[in-house]
Amino acid sequence: MDIPISSRDFRCLQLACVALGLAAGSIIIGVSVSKAAAAMGGIFIGAAGLGLLILAYPFLKARLNLDHFLPNIGSLRIHPQPGPDHGEGRSSTNGNKEGVRSGLSTVSRTLEKLKPGGRGTGEG
Questions:
Q1: Residue 46: which domain range?
Q2: 26: in domain
Q3: How many domains does the chain have?
Q4: Which of 41, 19, 22 lies closest to 31 in space, CA to CA?
Q5: Is residue 101 within 8 Å of 109, Cβ to Cβ?
Q6: In 7, 52, 97, 101, which residue has its Cα 20 to 30 A from 31's Cα atom?
């Protein structure tokens, strides 16, 4: 048995379900003592949010015209800017590598000192 329903009535029913879900979730979270009950209220609120998104989807699709935006988002590219020149024929990457090497050698010397029986323990 099919009952005809208008589009306007359907949207109103959807909005009523969303409002009921938000109200129920808020009440459940407000009066809950346990974390499980609060989680159930969160599920109600999440379902109401999803219902609101489904309700608003045709409007958002018509307003934002996603077919226009999506190809532009896919063609975005990041172009890094070159850093400042350090002069003296050295590039910035070489200076950075030397800094990393000296940092690693400092760490390795510290680890050698911390090893039992290693150099520089001061025993003996």
A1: 7-75
A2: yes
A3: 1
A4: 41
A5: no
A6: 52
The number of CA neighbours under 13 Å toward the Cβ of 92 is 6
The owner of tokens 């001061």 is: 122
Q: What distance lies between CA 9 and its chain's CA centroid?
A: 37
CB atoms < 10 A from the CB of 40, how many? 16
pLDDT in tens, the chain (124 residues): 678 888 888 888 888 989 999 999 989 888 888 888 889 899 999 999 888 888 888 887 777 776 666 666 666 666 666 666 555 555 555 555 555 566 667 777 777 777 776 555 555 4
- Please choose, from the candidates 115, 92, 112, 114, the residue with its C-alpha nearest in 3D space to the C-alpha of residue 104: 112
Q: Is residue 90 part of a domain?
A: no
User: What pTM, to 2 d.p., does this model score?
Assistant: 0.45
